[in-house]
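Hi R.,

Here's the chain you asked about this morning:
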Amino acid sequence: MKLLFAPMEGLTGYTYRNLHHTCFGGVDAYYTPFISAGQDFKFQNKERADYSPLNNKTIIDDGIQVIPQVMTNNAEAFCWAVMKLSESGYREVNLNLGCPSATVVSRGKGAGFLRNTDALDLFFEEAFDGLSKAGNTDTSITVKTRIGVSDPSEAGDIIRVYNRYPISGVIIHPRVMKQAYEGTPDIDCFAACLEESRHPVCYNGDIRTAGDYEWISKKFGDRIYAVMMGRGLIADPALAREIRGGERLGRGALMAYTDKLYAGYKELFGSDVNVLHKMKEIWTYEGRSFEGSEPYVHRILVSKRVDDYENAVRRLFDECRIKASGEHSDAWKYDIYR
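And here is the predicted structure, written out as tokens:
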């Protein structure tokens, strides 16, 4: 079964992706943070840099997929984005219909687009018609989705919209938009969506241990084509490797990886403020791989200067142990992301 690395805006850019692949691997495809396709038909410079094949060469040369993800509710802009990305050599583009961020959904994008299934239906009709007229029938279009806006009962109508179009795969995060990342994944609703969908389905949501992956893979077997991981893989960057039967996360490997990531961001950003901001975001997840790390992570997060940050990180590595490998809990009552 394929293992996919979900995009996280601001965190999993090309610097992170390349280093993760080099140090840990185990992932079959990395998805880019969303590229915003608007009516101005322009990509931002940072978006072009992130999907540039040159900046993803380490991954691509090893035969691992990098899949651009597009955020839009405009069919014409989506077609334009797909055409531009296909010119750069990409043969799959993912449409983000899952982001629950308030700034995104307030503009009717991401999971906010799920509010109006008639508009969503028209979007796909116009998008696939536009791609066909442009002669682009080779690029696979996949969708990352929630199961609704406020209630799982909305899921059936959403899946039936997808069923009407030649979508190559549907990545389902079984929470509604209003939950964001609170509560627990609705496994029963996911199972119903799996039965309803005419397209290949990928599971996404709260895979934070090898035991979680094992539970999902046994429950759904070959009825799903992939499992997507996000925050769990940032917290434990060796998770995909462990699932594949490789070595689990170790202190030395994580220290070397974090130091290289820190150096990579220094080279990319230059500014200490930007580097510290990025590393603090990473540590809000990575810190959870250690036992008793809360006061140490707090020191990292309140550091104002690079020497304060470096000292706080060294103290964490010196004084905290990596947690033992976690098992799956059928209750799915995790508080790691809250």
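One quick note: Residues 91 and 250 are 36 Å apart (CA to CA).

Cheers,
M.
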